[in-house]
Amino acid sequence: MTLSTETYGELQEIAARYPEPRSGLLPMLHLVQSVEGRITPEGIEACAELLGITAAEVSGVATFYTMYKRRPVGDYHVGVCTNTLCAVMGGDAIFERLKDHLGVGNDETTEDGKITLEHVECNAACDYAPVMMVNWEFMDNMTPETAMQIIDDLRTGKEVRSTRGPRVVTWREAERVLAGFPDDLADEGPSAGPASLVGLGIARERGWTAPASEQSGGSGRTADTKEEAVEQADTSRAESETKQVDDGTGSDK
Ligand code: FES
Question: CB 3.0-4.6 Å disulfide test: which of 104, 130, 174, 177 passes with 135?
Fold first, then answer.
């Protein structure tokens, strides 16, 4: 099967966004997945041809990152975090329960083509452990029961919403967003939640502040150490997230 003219056009459109067209390879591969349901040899060839690189180079990227799939993915990709914190908080139990419930193993898809189950590594959402992701949207503070309910709702076509984001779309639709074609759902749902902002609250309570950087127009002082730089970046991000929560503009996307 070859890609349609429309898909070729969109792949070209992505490449043209970048001063170096090959910088567009990652979103181009997401577009291939949105159309083909996985990374196909035709998709690899198309990207290589449009970027003037070899199929081996494209393949090397597609096989390196775990978000690119060589086997067809179901309508909903369900990733259960089984990394250390989530595992001890119940992630392992959730994964086992879903495996039994769905009758599939890791990285397998149910017979009806609806759900692909995969255990995933830390999603940087440890403050809401154990977390599960459906098509890359967060489902926080899961239990085996709430996770199974979500799966059943997805299979029966009920609307499911992320606990920190918009309603869940299909995997192919989500892949199209990752390719840089927005679905206008980015402002749906909450963004940063209280658990992510606890540190900021404590800092404010105790009057801790980070030295201002030149970019922020403050004292002009820049970080002297790596630790200081990390602290400045964290505070700036947390403050921006607080502002988004306060004015309701926040989103995970
Ligand atoms: S360990 Fe699961 S999100 Fe970090």
Answer: 174
